[in-house]
From TrEMBL, chain A:
Protein family per UniProt: Belongs to the WD repeat THOC6 family.
Protein known as: WD repeat-containing protein 58
Gene Ontology, cellular component aspect: chromosome, telomeric region; nuclear speck; THO complex; THO complex part of transcription export complex; transcription export complex
Organism: Monodelphis domestica (Gray short-tailed opossum)
GO biological process: apoptotic process; central nervous system development; mRNA export from nucleus; mRNA processing; RNA splicing
Pfam families: WD40
Keywords of the record: Apoptosis, Developmental protein, mRNA processing, mRNA splicing, mRNA transport, Nucleus, Phosphoprotein, Repeat, RNA-binding, Transport, WD repeat
Subunit structure: Component of the THO subcomplex, which is composed of THOC1, THOC2, THOC3, THOC5, THOC6 and THOC7. The THO subcomplex interacts with DDX39B to form the THO-DDX39B complex which multimerizes into a 28-subunit tetrameric assembly. Component of the transcription/export (TREX) complex at least composed of ALYREF/THOC4, DDX39B, SARNP/CIP29, CHTOP and the THO subcomplex; in the complex interacts with THOC5; together with THOC5 and THOC7, plays a key structural role in the oligomerization of the THO-DDX39B complex. TREX seems to have a dynamic structure involving ATP-dependent remodeling.
Location in the cell: Nucleus speckle
Automatic annotation (TrEMBL), chain B:
Alphabetical keyword list: Nucleus
Family to which the UniProt record says this protein belongs: Belongs to the THOC5 family.
Renumbered residue ranges of the record's region Disordered: 1-29, 250-282
Location in the cell: Nucleus
Coiled coil: none
Protein name: THO complex 5
Natural source organism: Monodelphis domestica (Gray short-tailed opossum)
Length: 316, 637
């Protein structure tokens, strides 16, 4: 089993995880973190089959859980899922070019300002879907898109793909603003791993991306790499946290980097390699403020303190 | 009397007369004489009155006496009468009391109750009018009625006795007739034997078998009955027979009198033997062990014939002291089996291995009867597994076929053979045995071929694979359980409990160019319903296993998890070879779709020849391992 995606509920007490069999499991973080936690608290509250194919991406709005997998997006009500009612609220798929193979949706991004959802995946296109209806397309990548990141100050979205480029798009005009070909830069390119960009995170002026090329911190305005993080394994997920950068990928550890490029800590998890990280920063549940990591196994590691792995939730 | 008295008195008078005359004779002799005469007359008168008085007194006395005598007599008579009467009274009283105490026998007879009596007795006996008032009459009447009834019943009884005698006589006659029939019938049966053989209806044989079956111990008997029933009803290819020494079996159940005689004999013998040297302790223990593991002389043999004429011969034994059943198996095939020759090859058809784990976990090395452990401790046997080669395997399904059910927790005092348990297991077990035999035969053939590096794929399964496969199987060997555990990439399987010592382990080596793929295979004895599990290790540009390469993991799952498509035609014994073929295919795909490393000079080692829609997909960048037929391209699952 591989767990591809995670998402925290709006109340902060529950964690949803999606795996490669199309199932979504809801874990109760508050129960698992409480002092009377037993073995059953580490099992899912409810598990249901959401999609036919793997669930590659999960994102939460303030009432809904949106899941995306092989070509369609489904929405579920958080309130209902917690009570074990597993019926989808809606399910849509963006228009595709070819019908021979259904392209997967690798990344979902929520744009709260315009109440719209950005999708990107196997058909090499970015779609915007208004959370009521409607969608329009932003094109540009030559190979499929792995990841998306939202730049808050100017309404731009970044996308990184298999073709090795990071492209910036302007949401209002739908045009590509900038393209960064990461693999052409000597400092970070690692041709033996390929040129694909697996993960992106942005902090308005700065961007971290990794994957085939090494994990690098970029200055966006000048589009130059400033720091290269010395890690051989390709990274699949990266995020900014306070003044640290957390990354995870091949290899069982969650890596913590300082902005200068030094490795602050490497905390081992229980899966042989990790595919997603999730930080529970919901203000409604400060006691459930944890980092969860999941990847190539049926376990979701919970880190209460970034220094060590507290315990693991198990999918089955 | 008076004269006598006078005479008596006269002497007195004379005397007295004699005295006075001497003194005064002259005075007046005449006055004196007159006075004397007067006095004499007076004395005589006095004497006369005296006499009269005396006489009167006497008479009075006599009278008185007579009177009293009479009265006394009367009184005596009355007295006597009184005594008589009293005596009589007493006598009568005694009689009365005797009469009153007399318990007539009639009170001991239980008479019918009053109401019943009045109901049933005919009026001439009951005489209601008289008897109602008079209890004496009533009792008499009842007694009468009782007498009537008894007489009637006595008559009936006599009649019944007579008829019984008659019937007995009839029975005797008929018995004689029947016994005369017996020799005639057996002669007919003898004559009918050739007819039976001619018509293929071996009733006689079956009859003989049932005869011997009577001497079977209960579990074997249950097995025999159920197996023959099943064979007749559902499965024509199952034949049941009883083997062994019937005489010995009969000898086991000798009656006690014989054994008592034996005891006295053996006592005498024992005294003799103590004089001889005692056998050593080891020999004694050995004997005790042999005694404990003794088999019943009779055994049941089951022959299962399969479609291709291969047969599985099962012989079931019963260990009497341990109350368990064991089985020995043997395979015979119509054609010669080509066995693989490599070193370390485990013969899947050997008697030891063929029935291992027919049901999951039933490895037949431990005795299923918990009570046996205590028995073993007494004679120093550690486990039964040392003796299974000669005694046969005590599998759990064998016990169930014999109707012996052993609970798991505590030892039970008596375990008796139960028919219903055996019946429910018979069908499943027979089916399992057949599939097991077929699967093992198929596997042996496949192994023989695999040893030469050829993966035999039948024509029905060709469609599962593309036409051109470049990777080849180079080596196929059996490895031991310990070696499997040593391999670094098999740890997860061992931890998940999927690899035990009853399973079979193999190592396959597939090569293409410089790439070498090692596959460690766990084969469950329950192949092919339980699929083999593959673990891969690729040596090409470094060592890649599922722990460091997601695509290797995907390959493993493609082969081990998605096995249902690879079963092939029913009953699916080609699973292993199809899996190996698929492994070659996915290795091809892996090598060809590897993205080219632009930093290294030179062309790709493996040019892409497979048709793939997309080379990578998804956040984990999976390769397309799924083959689509008949379009012939590869896509992602």
């Amino acid at each position: 089993m591989t767990i591809f995606s995670q998402s925290v509920s709006p109340c902060g007490k529950f964690l949803a995880a999606g795996n490669n069999y199309g199932q979504i499991a809801i874990f109760s973080l508050s129960a698992a973190l409480s002092s009377e936690a037993k073995e059953e608290s580490k099992k899912p509250l409810v598990t249901f089959v959401a999609h036919d194919g793997p669930v590659y991406s999960l994102v939460s709005t303030d009432r809904h859980l949106l899941s995306a997998g092989d070509g369609e997006v489904k929405a579920w009500l958080w309130g209902e899922i917690i009570k074990k009612g597993c019926k989808e609220v809606w399910s849509r798929h963006p228009p595709y070019r070819s019908s021979l193979e259904v392209p997967e949706i690798n990344a979902l991004l929520l744009n709260p300002k315009e109440n719209s959802l950005l999708l990107a995946g196997g058909d090499c296109q970015l779609h915007t879907m208004d959370l009521e209806t409607g969608s329009f397309t932003l094109r540009g990548h030559t190979d499929y898109i792995h990841c998306l990141a939202l730049r808050e100050r100017s309404p731009e979205v970044l996308s990184g793909g298999e073709d090795g480029t990071v492209r910036l798009w302007d949401l209002r005009t739908g045009e590509e603003v900038q393209t960064i070909e990461v693999y052409r830069h000597e400092e970070c390119a690692r041709p033996q791993n390929g040129k694909w960009i697996g993960c992106l995170a942005t902090d308005s002026d700065w961007m971290v991306c990794g994957g085939g090329p090494a994990l690098t911190l970029w200055h966006l305005r000048s589009a130059t790499p400033t720091t290269v993080f010395p890690l051989r394994a390709p990274q699949k997920h990266v995020t900014f946290y306070q003044d640290l950068i957390l990354s995870a990928g091949q290899g069982p550890c969650v890596n913590q980097w300082q902005l200068s490029g030094e490795l602050k800590a490497q905390v081992p998890g229980s899966s042989p390699s990790l595919l997603s990280l999730s930080l529970n920063q919901q203000p409604a549940a400060p006691e459930c403020k944890v980092l969860t990591a999941a990847g190539n196994s049926c376990r979701v590691d919970v880190f209460t303190n970034l220094g060590y792995r507290a315990f693991s939730l198990s999918f089955s | 009397m008076s004269t006598e008295s006078n005479k008596k008195r006269k002497p007195k008078v004379i005397r007295s007369d004699g005295a006075p005359p001497e003194g005064k004779r002259n005075r007046s002799e005449i006055d004196l004489a007159s006075e004397i005469e007067e006095r004499r007359i007076q004395s005589c008168v006095h004497f006369m009155t005296l006499k009269k008085l005396n006489r009167l007194a006497h008479i009075r006395l006599k009278k008185g006496r007579d009177q009293t005598h009479e009265a006394k007599q009367k009184v005596d008579a009355y007295h006597l009468q009184l005594q008589n009467l009293l005596y009589e009274v007493m006598h009568l009283q005694k009689e009365i009391t005797k009469c009153l105490e007399f318990k007539s026998k009639h009170e001991e007879i239980e008479l019918v109750s009053m109401e019943e009596f009045y109901r049933e007795a005919p009026p001439e006996i009951s005489k209601c009018e008289i008897t109602m008032g008079d209890p004496h009459q009533q009792t008499l009447a009842r007694l009468d009625w009782e007498l009537e009834q008894r007489k009637r019943l006595a008559e009936k009884y006599k009649e019944c006795l007579a008829s019984k005698e008659k019937i007995l006589k009839e029975i005797e006659v008929k018995k004689e007739y029947l016994s005369s029939l017996q020799p005639r019938l057996s002669s007919i049966m003898q004559a009918s034997l050739p007819v039976q053989e001619y018509l293929f209806m071996p009733f006689d044989q079956a009859h003989k078998q049932y005869e011997t079956a009577r001497h079977l111990p209960p579990p074997l008997y249950v097995l025999f009955v159920q197996a023959s029933a099943y064979g007749q009803a559902c499965d024509k290819k199952l034949s049941v027979a009883i083997e062994g020494n019937v005489e010995e079996a009969k000898a086991l159940y000798k009656p006690p009198e014989d054994s008592q005689d034996d005891e006295s004999d053996s006592d005498a013998e024992e005294e003799q033997t103590t004089k001889r040297r005692r056998p050593t302790l080891g020999v004694q223990l050995d004997d005790k062990r042999k005694e404990m593991l003794k088999r019943h002389p009779l055994s049941v043999m089951l022959d299962l014939r399969c479609k291709d004429d291969s047969m599985l011969h099962l012989t079931f034994y019963y260990l009497m002291n341990l109350n368990i059943m064991t089985v020995k198996a043997r395979v015979s095939t119509a054609t010669e089996i080509v066995t693989p020759v490599s070193a370390g090859y485990v013969d899947l058809l050997s008697p030891d291995m063929i029935l291992s784990c027919l049901y999951p976990g039933d490895h037949g090395k431990k005795t299923p009867n918990p009570a046996n452990q205590y028995q073993f401790d007494k004679v120093g046997i550690l486990t039964l597994s040392d003796y299974v080669l000669e005694l046969g395997h005590p599998y759990l399904w064998v016990q169930k076929l014999g109707g012996l059910h052993f609970p798991k927790e505590q030892p039970q005092h008596t375990v008796t053979a139960d028919n219903s348990l055996s019946a429910s297991h018979m069908e499943t077990t027979m089916k399992l045995l057949r599939t097991r035999l077929q699967a093992r035969l198929a596997l042996t053939k496949q192994f023989a071929s695999l040893e030469h590096g050829i993966v035999p794929v039948s024509s029905e399964c060709q469609r599962l694979f593309p036409a051109k496969i470049v990777s080849r199987l180079v080596k196929w060997v059996a490895i031991a359980y310990e070696d499997y555990m040593e391999l670094p990439y098999t740890r997860d399987i061992v931890e998940a409990g999927l690899a035990e010592d009853t399973h079979l382990y193999y190592l396959a080596l597939i090569e293409r160019g410089t790439a070498k793929l090692q596959a460690a295979v766990v084969l469950n004895p329950g192949y092919s319903s339980i699929p083999p599990i593959f673990r891969l290790c690729l040596n090409w540009k470094g060592e890649k296993t599922s722990s460091n390469d997601d695509n290797i993991r995907a390959m493993e799952s493609e082969v081990s998890v998605c096995y249902r498509e690879l079963y092939g035609p029913r009953p699916g014994y080609q699973l292993l070879t199809n899996q190996l073929q698929r492994l070659c295919v996915v290795l091809d795909v892996y090598l060809e779709t590897e993205s080219h490393d632009t930093s290294v000079e030179g062309p790709k080692e493996f040019p892409q020849e497979k048709m793939c829609l997309r080379l990578v997909r998804g956040p984990s960048r999976m390769k397309p391992f799924k083959y689509n037929h008949p379009q012939g391209f590869f896509s992602h699952r």
